[in-house]
Amino acid sequence: MLQLEVNKLNEETNVMKAQIEVEDAMLTFRSFLGIRGDEKLQVIPEDSVAEFEVSLDEALKQAYEHSPEIDSYERKKLESRSQLASARANAGLKADLYLRFGLSQTAERFNESFRDPLDQQYVSLTLSLPILDWGRGRGKVRVAKSNVELVNTQVGQAVTDFELNVRKMVRQFNLQAYQVRVASKTDQTAWRRYEVARRMYLMGKSTVLDLNAATTEKDTARRNYIAALRNYWTLYYGLRSMTQYDFQRKLPLAECLPEI
What we know:
260 residues, Outer membrane efflux proteins (OEP), 5 helices, transport, transmembrane, membrane, cell outer membrane
């Protein structure tokens, strides 16, 4: 009896924690959807998984073609090169060319001021060559060169990490489908065991401890199955986001958007 009392108290504590987690998750879900009312929402988990695997080569190919992260890395490299070119240009000879052209005339009457206008032309060429800049120009060029090398190193590391993340997510996703199937079978088996244990208890052929153990296993198997489903869909949409590609429809996400 003491064991049953302990189990009861533990389950009550677990129920309270689960209720708090559900309420917090529901508030977050409402905020994401922009729902401010008190409408009751019921989330039905998708208990079916797609029977397909993602090719690693295809995932990498689509990631390099469509991911905005790759574009941001290329932009950083171009910006550093542009800063180097600007530093080199400002450190040398400068030439400015000005050209001005205009028409003017004066007269006692307004309409006569537009007759036979006098043209005015002005052209100037200015050359600027620093005689002594205390090495500031060369210093800026060296700093810009160092920045290019630093950016190239950082971008190279970022691209490597990005590719490793894609590889890791593809491997986890392909394995997670199998884990979902195993968790589903475990959930069904635990439910059948619970039904047998319940009938045996009602017939007086087992103890309440046996029924309690079967109940605990059933609940644990169900939670593990839901967690496996959550991980599967989290990996699936994470992979879609990273590669910007729908592997089921075999289309880039940009081509899957609904028309507005």
